[in-house]
Every structure is written in structure tokens, then in C-alpha cells.
Specification:
Elements: H1 3-12, E1 20-22, H2 28-36, E2 42-43, H3 46-52, H4 63-76, E3 81-84, H5 93-105, E4 110-114, H6 126-139, E5 144-148, H7 151-154, H8 165-177, E6 182-184, H9 191-200, E7 205-208, H10 214-220, E8 224-226, H11 230-244
Helix pairs in contact: 2-4, 5-6, 6-8, 9-10
């Protein structure tokens, strides 16, 4: 299959209510394990990728490491691979386009792209982030751009999430117009609010599976479910427990 064929096949897996389950991996070994367990596609999470190499999350892992890791994962499996690319390792559109071109050259057919200003408590304005999404799209016509909003993830008080819905939907519409393929809403766990995003956004919606169930996501109309740092955290806990019980 050509790159375009693989990217289109990956995009076709995003069907509202028919969940694409992405149990996030971090290296070639974990990719092979999840592929062998029957996954339809593979996705990295930025935290486990960084942690596995001894770096903090938040673009602290050098870009060259990120790209090299992506290349090894792609080479290790026949499944489509999408990479958590955080904020694209750049602010300005020209450098974003250059970075995403390099990511596509690894063979990865998708990326997560977030609207927080990495390393701060702030967000890009809707207008600036739309320009940034357009710059990501300009890098490659086929790569699946999973545009992520951090509105809900940064607001820890879930009782305030309903008040963020208007902005979330506005951001989703802007990112779709700028060339996004999917809309990622980590941190939102209220089933009714998730359903509102699914109904109000033209893009297939991706949820983070922390605090909700697969059935809840399915009924809300979600297309894609991600587990982020959870798989890595669970495995590290098991590893430590096994060591502590050695005889």
C-alpha cells in the first residue's frame, strides 16, 4: 500500500458509534504486543514515549528522538500508526509544516495536535490555532490530523465543563475548516456533554478513556477512544510489583 492508501484506510476506521480503540503504545516492542493482540491501528502517547526514554512530558524529549521512535514503530508493524505530536515542536506555521513533513516521512499516517501552549497554562487563540492546523495540513494532504483541544483537560473542575462547551464547539468548527480530520476532547467525561460535541462537530470525535466506559463512548457517538498514559502506567506498576515479590 502507498502512504496515501494507508492514510485513507486509517481515516476510514473513524466511524461514530463504531469505536476505533487505540490502546496507546510507546516503542516498537509495545507496538508489536498490541498489534499481536488484535488492534486495528496503533497510537503513541507523548507521556509514555517520553517516560520510556527518561524525559518529562511536554516536548522535553528532543524532536529527533520522537521522529526516530516513530520510524521504528512504523517499521515494526503493518498497522497504521498515529503519533502524539503535542504542539508540533514549533509555534510558527512554517516550522510546523517542516516538522510534520518529517513526521510523515517516518511513515506515520496520523498525528495528535493540541491547542495548549506547551509548557504553559495558556491556549492558542482560536484564530492562531486554526492557522497552525492549516500549517500542519499543508505538510501532507493525506495525514490524519487529530486536532486536540485541552479546554477540558486543563479545567480539573468537571462542574465547569458545561460552561466550556460553546468555545469547544467553536474550536472544533475552526479546526475542521482549517483541515483537521478528527477532534480530540481529553478530560471531558460527562456523557451528555460528549454527545453534544459529537452532535455539534462535523469531525469524528476522540475521547480519552479515563472516567468513562467504552459503552458510554459508543452511545454518545464517539468514533475513537484513546488510553493515553494509562497502559504505560499500568505496566510500570506491574513491573515494580513483580520485582517486589521476587523470592
Amino acid at each position: 500500500m502507498t502512504y496515501s492508501d494507508r492514510a485513507r484506510a486509517f481515516a476510514a476506521l473513524h466511524q461514530p458509534g463504531n469505536l476505533l480503540i487505540l490502546y496507546n503504545i510507546w516503542d516498537a516492542g509495545s507496538a508489536r504486543a498490541i498489534a499481536g493482540a488484535g488492534a486495528a491501528a496503533l497510537a503513541t502517547g507523548s507521556f509514555p514515549v517520553a517516560a520510556a526514554q527518561g524525559f518529562p512530558d511536554g516536548e522535553q524529549m528532543p524532536l529527533e528522538f520522537v521522529l526516530g521512535n516513530a520510524e521504528r514503530i512504523v517499521a515494526a508493524t503493518e498497522l497504521p500508526v498515529t503519533i502524539d505530536f503535542e504542539g508540533g515542536y514549533a509555534r510558527e506555521p512554517e516550522q510546523l509544516t517542516a516538522n510534520v513533513k518529517r513526521l510523515a516521512e517516518t511513515g506515520a499516517v496520523g498525528l495528535n495536535f493540541e491547542d495548549q501552549v506547551v509548557g504553559t497554562a495558556g491556549f492558542y487563540s482560536i484564530e492562531e490555532q486554526a492557522r497552525r492546523v492549516a500549517a500542519v495540513r499543508a505538510a501532507n494532504a493525506d495525514i490524519f490530523v487529530n486536532a486536540r483541544t485541552d479546554l477540558f483537560l486543563k479545567e480539573k473542575d468537571a462542574s465547569k465543563h458545561a460552561g466550556l462547551m460553546a468555545e469547544a464547539l467553536e474550536r472544533g468548527a475552526a479546526y475542521a475548516e482549517a483541515g483537521g480530520n478528527g477532534y480530540f476532547i481529553p478530560g471531558l467525561t460527562d456523557p451528555d456533554l460528549i454527545a453534544q460535541v459529537c452532535e455539534g462537530c462535523s469531525l469524528p470525535v476522540n475521547t480519552m478513556m479515563r472516567g468513562i466506559t467504552l459503552e458510554t463512548a459508543r452511545q454518545a457517538g464517539v468514533a475513537r477512544c484513546s488510553y493515553g498514559p494509562i497502559p504505560h502506567a499500568k505496566l510500570m506498576q506491574v513491573l515494580a510489583e513483580h520485582f517486589q515479590t521476587l523470592e
